Amino acid sequence: MTTNIHRSKFFLPFLTVLTFLLASSANIVVGDNSWYQNIEKSSLTPAPYVFGIVWPVLYGLMGVVSYYKGSEIFYLYIFQLLLNGIWSWLFFFFNLPLIALIDIYLLIAINFLLQQKLITNKVLFFIYMPYLLWILYASYLNLIIVLLN
Predict the structure, then answer these.
(1) CB 69 within 8 A of CB 99
(2) What is the Cα–Cα distance from 89 to 23, expressed in whole angstroms?
(3) Rounded to whole angstroms, how far apart are CA atoms 138 and 42?
(4) Which of 111, 118, 28, 124 is nearest to 76 (CA)?
């Protein structure tokens, strides 16, 4: 008997973990983050360690939602993972904050659509909300960098 891989409840959570690892590797590959250290940033930019705490939690919450709602959000979720994963590369590796800003605006739009699909399950809707709020905040930080530099 053959199984369709996207029907597995573990496929999207697996892709979530993989995206986290690939997105995080942009910072590792860069090694020297002098570009980021030397650009003008918002006064609301958190300390670097905050990102290392927040992102694993958000990816964990995303994985939970994808486990329970994967069949309903499959294609939107994969598209948002792609946009999420390439943002770090666009911003940190290629130093393209304007392109990264466009990416994050698309990411926000897709995640508003995802939230609409989650409205039928209030628990999952609220589990996913911190991610949407964080990328809204991240888009603000990205916008300020574009405007100041």
Answers:
(1) no
(2) 7
(3) 11
(4) 111
Q: Structure pTM?
A: 0.89
The single-letter code of the amino acid at 40 is E
* Residue 76: closest CA among 132, 127, 134: 132
- Decide if 123 contacts 67 (C-beta within 8 A): no
Cα distances from 22 to residues 9, 33, 48, 95, 137, in angstroms, run 21, 17, 19, 17, 22
| Tens-place pLDDT, residues 64-115 | 999 999 999 999 999 999 999 999 999 999 999 999 999 999 999 999 999 9
Question: Rounded to an integer, what distance in angstroms lies between the CA atom of residue 20 and that of residue 66?
Answer: 14
